[in-house]
TrEMBL record:
It comes from Paramuricea clavata. InterPro entries: Flavin_mOase-like (IPR020946). Its EC number is 1.-.-.-. Keywords: FAD, Flavoprotein, Monooxygenase, Oxidoreductase. This is Flavin-containing monooxygenase.
Amino acid sequence: MNELGEMIGAKPNLWSIFKEDPKLAYQVFFGTAIPTQYRLQGPNTWKDARKHIMSFQEQYLCPLSTRKCAPSAESNSHSVLVFIFVIVFAIVAIMLKA
């Protein structure tokens, strides 16, 4: 999918997404790979692509489970903090190498 996305110019640029919306960048990078990611940028963009990506778990995965589930706000905010920590750590490591 990445090769086709590059050919038509629809592959998501994670750095530009991270600058605008870190939660969305985290979901695109660490979440389930879905075709909606290729509608964020490039030709034929979809204005509701962000909403679809962020609600993917409750739309598709929760109905398949036998118990009632709902994504908690605590775990989501915790994951964003971990993502930001990893990015900061990588930047510091690159600066120390140079």
